[in-house]
């Protein structure tokens, strides 16, 4: 194939992956973007309708857990870079079914590492294996302090433990086999196309349908929110300019207590739906806390700012407002993903 780079993006039909695929396909016509996704409940090709006919875009419905299929794809496309996002990504699901997280996040990642190592053995310097990870590997902060790239790992949920394991394996392949790896650990993302099991789209969906807004525990837990389009800009930066063997933290400098965030969403929704102020807060419902619920995540992203010149720019209110507008303008997307399997999961998760 006559492309400058042949990049395998795993999990490209998911929330962050689809934004990344769109960015790279449009920005780099000389790169072949090969989206490898087995389309779990979280994968949705509707996310990529606008770019699916581009000449530099390819889709393969395959699981990263299948070593032979992945090896065949490396051969078919002569893959020379991987940006690895495919994962089981929801903490609450990991509490119900940890094994699925180990299979995809740990074993699936190891398959890709082994294949990249084997396939790139003689051309190692032109290649890059970029692993997308989360700040949740660092565990839970109290009221003060920030996660830096040197904060010791202390994962506390099956999800974060599986991501931590995959990060360790990526680093092990760098040190042991000199595989050209790079890792980034990002804070909570929000934005269009996020599956409505995560807090922000769940709240938007439930206000729209006049359903309870479940707040775990007392709602005092803190998350640092970053707009997904800013995250994928950071990924593009790290992919091109990040140093091999390094890790970069990515964050929004934007900490919110869950309860305050939900109230802000209620206010914005009331404004946009033409409701009287305070209408949506009636749906706020405090429910049993998540088991092992991490209190606070907060990222120090000075390394990526100082070394690679990336920092978040979009104000949270603006990002949240455009996110809500997207959900209001895309009712069919929302309806399609909130049927079937999702409904069963939802009933299991919130039946208490
Ligand atoms: P997502 O759940 O929306 O998407 C995951 C995608 O991976 C889906 O398209 C799914 O079909 C695919 N997938 C799952 N198992 C697969 C398998 N075995 N083979 C091939 N494809 C498979 O997740 P997301 O929120 O877009 O997160 C993407 C990545 O970013 C994950 O690795 C996650 O850990 C990381 N991350 C997410 C956040 C966040 O706030 N969402 C923050 C930091 C890091
Ligand atoms: P979530 O979106 O699941 O992301 P993560 O657990 O990866 O941070 O949850 C964000 C925060 O919101 C987290 O503290 C748990 C809380 N939460 C609720 O209070 N209610 C909910 O229904 C959900 C899904 C999350």
How many separate helices?
12
- Summing up helix and strand content along with how strands pair, one would put the structural category as alpha/beta
The oligomeric state of the chains shown is single chain
Largest sheet: 7 strands, parallel
Q: CATH homologous superfamily of the domain at 5-190 and 226-253 and 298-315 - what is it?
A: NAD(P)-binding Rossmann-like Domain
Structural description of this entry:
- This protein is an alpha/beta fold and 352 residues long.
- The chain has a domain at 5-190 and 226-253 and 298-315: NAD(P)-binding Rossmann-like Domain (Rossmann fold), CATH 3.40.50.
- It is built from twelve helices and twelve strands.
- It has helices at residues 15-27, 67-77, 91-96, 98-119, 158-177, 199-208, 228-241, 258-273, 302-308, 316-329, 331-337, 341-350, and strands at residues 5-10, 31-36, 57-60, 81-84, 128-134, 181-186, 188-190, 213-216, 222-227, 247-250, 255-257, 284-287.
- The strands form three sheets. A seven-stranded parallel β-sheet has the order 3-2-1-4-5-6-10, with helices on both faces. Strands 7-9-11 form a three-stranded mixed β-sheet.
- The mean pLDDT is 95.
- Bound molecules: nicotinamide-adenine-dinucleotide and thymidine-5'-diphosphate (TYD).
- Residues 91, 188, 198-199, 202, 214-216, 221, 223, 258, 290 line the site of thymidine-5'-diphosphate.
């Amino acid at each position: 194939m006559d492309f400058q780079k042949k990049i395998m993006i795993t999990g490209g039909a998911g929330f962050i992956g689809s934004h990344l695929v769109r960015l790279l396909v449009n920005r780099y016509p000389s790169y072949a973007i090969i989206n490898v996704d087995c389309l779990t409940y979280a994968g949705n090709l509707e996310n990529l309708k606008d770019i699916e006919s581009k000449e530099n875009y390819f889709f393969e419905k395959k699981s990263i857990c299948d070593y032979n299929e992945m090896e065949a794809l490396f051969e078919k496309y002569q893959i020379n870079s991987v940006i690895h996002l495919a994962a089981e990504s929801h903490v609450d699901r990991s509490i119900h079914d940890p094994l699925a997280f180990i299979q995809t996040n740990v074993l699936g990642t190891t398959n890709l590492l082994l294949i990249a190592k084997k396939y790139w053995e003689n051309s190692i310097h032109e290649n890059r294996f970029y692993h997308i990870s989360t700040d949740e590997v660092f565990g839970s902060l109290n009221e003060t302090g920030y996660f830096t790239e040197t904060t010791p790992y202390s994962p506390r949920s099956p999800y974060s433990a599986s991501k931590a394991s995959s990060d360790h394996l990526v680093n092990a392949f760098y040190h042991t086999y000199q595989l050209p790896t790079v890792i980034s650990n990002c804070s909570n993302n929000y934005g269009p196309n996020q599956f409505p099991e995560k807090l922000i789209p769940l709240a938007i969906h439930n206000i729209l349908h006049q359903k309870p807004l479940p707040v775990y525990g007392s709602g005092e837990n803190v998350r640092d929110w970053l707009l997904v389009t800013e995250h994928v800009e950071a990924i593009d930066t790290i992919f091109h300019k990040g140093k091999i063997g390094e890790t970069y933290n990515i964050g929004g400098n934007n900490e919110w207590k869950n309860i305050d965030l939900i109230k802000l969403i209620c206010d914005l929704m009331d404004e946009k739906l033409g409701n009287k102020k305070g209408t949506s807060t009636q749906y706020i419902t405090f429910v049993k806390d998540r088991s092992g619920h991490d209190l606070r995540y907060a990222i120090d992203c000075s390394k990526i700012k100082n070394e690679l010149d990336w920092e978040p720019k979009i104000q949270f209110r603006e990002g949240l407002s455009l996110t809500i507008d997207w959900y209001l303008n895309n009712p069919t997307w929302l309806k399609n993903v909130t049927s079937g399997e999702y409904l069963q999961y939802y009933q299991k998760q919130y039946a208490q």
